[in-house]
Design brief:
- α5 packs across α6, α7 packs across α10 and α7 packs across α11.
- By secondary structure, this protein is an alpha/beta fold.
- An eight-stranded mixed sheet has the order 7-8-6-3-4-5-11-12, with helices on both faces. Strands 1-2 form a two-stranded antiparallel ribbon.
- The N and C termini lie far apart (59 Å).
- The structure holds zinc ion (ZN) (2 copies).
- One zinc ion binds next to α12.
Length: 317
């Protein structure tokens, strides 16, 4: 098989695009797709200040790498869940990437703040770890954005993530999520940053190839708590479909975006937390209630790692 662009030996075949490419041309092809996605859907504008939510995994580190390569000066934010070796290794990979990109990143250290890991916090909240984690992450990341003037939050969700979530929402007709225009959610000025997913047309397999070829050193393990069986099942179903009809996932997501164009999002009455000012559905938000319960409002803050990677502790209330 020969590369469609340069005619040398191809290293990756992309059946959904009916093409094959060598490593170098694949990198350009994927980066161009990300750039075109950003432009077409207006994900990041010239006057925006973007930040990437990094986990240490291939997708978030790759999107951070790609954005900076494309000239979007994006910093990073990491929520350190304090899950032993997994979290330490993730942090080490993020530091290494930040050093390479010469960008700074913020760390929200859950164990230092709560003096407990996410599993123990979840028990106190009577939630499963993933639910407690999601709530704390949303709050922490939004705090970093609001306190430091980042108006666009970028996440590394890829085509497979989006297609699996869409399939799940369709199967159970979760209308509340179905019309949410998931790849690009509007923010609320002064309360919540806009959320965008520049990789939503790039598949899991493409992102793994991209990280490998670009030498991005990422953590291969999944979070030990995030064994989301359902989402894996949906991904497998979609991969089986993709096997027989290449391009299915892409069509599924593109068709969705076409369909929801013009449909008004059903907006629930949103109000703002009386304590922190972030969006919530009435009264005080779950995070502020949790902080009150632990009596740790004064310790809530984040660490900022400069591009020289000297740590400076920043505690904010
Ligand atoms: Zn080539
Ligand atoms: Zn609050």
């Amino acid at each position: 098989m020969k590369c469609r662009v340069c005619g040398q030996d191809a290293h990756i075949s992309l059946r959904s695009y009916n093409t094959a490419l060598c490593s170098q041309d694949f990198i350009s092809f994927l980066e161009k797709r990300v750039f075109d996605t950003i432009q077409k859907y207006n994900l990041i504008g010239n006057n925006d200040t973007p930040i990437v939510a990094v986990s240490g995994g291939k997708d978030s580190l790759s999107v951070w790498h790609i954005l900076n390569k494309l000239g979007y000066k994006a910093d990073g934010v990491y929520v350190d869940l304090g899950i032993g070796e997994y979290s330490q290794e993730s942090l080490a990979k993020i530091k290494k990437t930040a050093e390479g990109l010469q960008r700074k990143f913020f760390v929200f250290p859950i164990r230092k703040i709560f003096e407990k890991g996410i599993d123990e916090i979840a028990k106190v909240m009577r939630r499963v770890p993933c639910s407690a984690c999601g709530m704390i992450k949303r709050y922490a990341i939004n705090k970093v954005c609001m306190d430091n003037g980042y108006n666009v939050l970028i996440t590394g969700h890829n085509l497979d993530d989006e297609a699996a979530a869409l399939l799940g929402n369709l199967l159970y007709w979760k209308e509340e999520y179905l019309w949410k225009k998931s790849p690009f959610l509007d923010g609320h000025e002064g309360h919540l940053s806009r959320k965008v997913k520049p990789l939503f047309l790039c598949s899991e397999r493409e992102m793994a190839a991209y990280a490998l070829i670009s030498g991005i050193d990422y953590i291969h393990d999944e979070c030990p708590f995030s064994i989301n069986a359902k989402s894996l099942t949906y991904k497998n179903i979609l991969n089986n479909l993709e096997e027989t009809s290449p391009g299915t996932k892409l069509q599924f997501i593109k068709g969705y975006l076409k369909t929801i164009k013009g449909i008004e999002e059903k907006k629930r009455d949103i109000s703002y937390c009386t304590t922190c000012g972030y969006p919530c559905y009435g009264g005080t938000c779950s995070m502020c209630r949790l902080l009150h319960r632990f009596h740790i409002k004064d310790r809530i803050g984040f660490e900022e790692w400069g591009s020289n990677l000297d740590i400076t502790q920043k505690m904010m209330t």
